[in-house]
Design brief:
The chain is mainly alpha-helical. The protein has five helices and no strands. It has a single domain, classed as nmb1532 protein domain like (Four Helix Bundle (Hemerythrin (Met), subunit A), Up-down Bundle), CATH 1.20.120.520. Helix 1 packs antiparallel against helix 4. The longest helix has 32 residues. The protein is elongated, with a radius of gyration of 16 Å.
Length: 145
Amino acid sequence: MNDKTKSGFEDRHARLIKLFNSYKDAKKENSVKAKEIFKDFADCLERHMRWEEKVLFPILRKDKNTAHDSLIDLIRTEHIKILAYLKDLQEKIDKNLALEKEEERLILYLIQHEELEDEVIHPTIIKLIKNKEVKEDIFDSIDDI
């Protein structure tokens, strides 16, 4: 796997985890700031999932491998669950409710999701992409989504 491309995928996941941890830290001292950070986290996560679906999934589909169709279905199902977790958590944050259980559920699910992507999806994508410029462009395209 190209180290720069692998790093590009890992950097996006690390940024999401950093935002979530910033939210958790902020909520101890400033609930208004914590709400803002969570909103940033949720927006970034949603944009990341849209990017995967609009940029990465078509790369898998072009290969016409039925195993890739199963991967796409699995990741899409996980995205739907993550969006539901985000919505549930956002509603509770807006109401200033206790959130430890929901936060833990979300972060554990995100970690499992990230492992699947890092171990299966991203290596597959990298093998399918032949052109170096395309690899770099896939990361630039997240800003357009």
